[in-house]
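User: structure tokens for this one?
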Amino acid sequence: MPKKTIPEEEYMNTGHVGCLGCGACHAMRYTLKALGPKTIVSIPACCWAVMPGPFPAKCLEVPLINTAFEVTGASISGIKAALDAKGITDVTVVGFAGDGGTADIGIQALSGMVERGTDVIYIMYDNEAYMNTGIQRSSSTPVGAWTTTTPVGTTKDWKKQPKKNMMDIMVAHKIPYAATCSIGFPEDLIKKLRKAKEIRGPKFIQIYAPCPTGWRMQPDKTIEVCRLAIATGAVPLYEVENGVYNISRKPAELKPVKDYLKIQGRFRHLPEEELESIQKNVTREWKILLKKEEFTKGLVDL
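Assistant:
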């Protein structure tokens, strides 16, 4: 990994209380490497609300504000307004929330924040369930997954509803920049966050951050499963700048999605017909994304 693309400076210290292999820890570390010391982070109830440890312990070298579950969008709006009132223009304000606190509980405040055009970065670290409170399903949990509120076995009550597409929702708000990232590709993540920092207006970043505990996999598989997610098309990496789509990593040929699913115990109950259904949907969504890229790039000069 070339050092010139990964800053050596560390603004996240050792000693956090995250689980082994925690993807959210990587997400925060790379976020701060990209944005630097002049950053203020607002964190709602989520895994990262407890990660620094009990007060007065800390693991971040930037200001951190803990807020209620549903208010991240409002919190960073207020922080930015206070900085503007003081004439401080060189500080990046970041909301750092999980998928439950973003796609479910916090979506109203997030929608209001982006509609107002607030110049902040909102990051959703996506571990696809409410991991901090006991692995309950969220609207970001993918089809077929076991959680403690979608039990399996004889009930076959795994998650039936499709994963909520937060990128489409944010793009529909006409924001200047939205992107998906993965901790498995830190250079891409850092590049996109640095781009977001230079763009004025609201920015939305969705960071794919596996949770070995909730996904029922070994902690040393975190990066492997990240890379398989991209290689199979299950989690595409792309950005949307002023409505124009650009796919960051485009495999010449997608690997079978079961290669990605079989590492995770949360999918081991699925019958073959369900795996085939998931594969068809992944293939369909990948083709749609390719068409969006082709179509929107053709409109650049309009």
